Amino acid sequence: MTAPATPRPSARARRERALLILEDGTVLRGSAYGARGARFGEVVFTTGMTGYQETLSDPSYAGQIVVQTAPHIGNTGA
């Protein structure tokens, strides 16, 4: 008989905690993804339902924190 498998934490549980601190002192807590470390920049929003690849690679957004407002980013289809 083998020992029961040790449950692995979910991907969400393994995520590093992160803070977004706004100019007015507001602190928003969440989970980090992507590059780690301290960053600063102007927060900008994009409302496009498509073309997120172009937005995220567009050099005109350099130095800005881009927020994608579409509810799903990634591959979709049947």
UniProtKB/TrEMBL annotation:
Residues 16-78 form the Carbamoyl-phosphate synthase small subunit N-terminal domain. Pfam families: CPSase_sm_chain. SMART domains: CPSase_sm_chain. InterPro entries: CarbamoylP_synth_ssu_N (IPR002474), CarbP_synth_ssu_N_sf (IPR036480). This is Carbamoyl phosphate synthase small subunit. The lineage of its organism: Bacteria, Bacillati, Actinomycetota, Actinomycetes, Micrococcales.
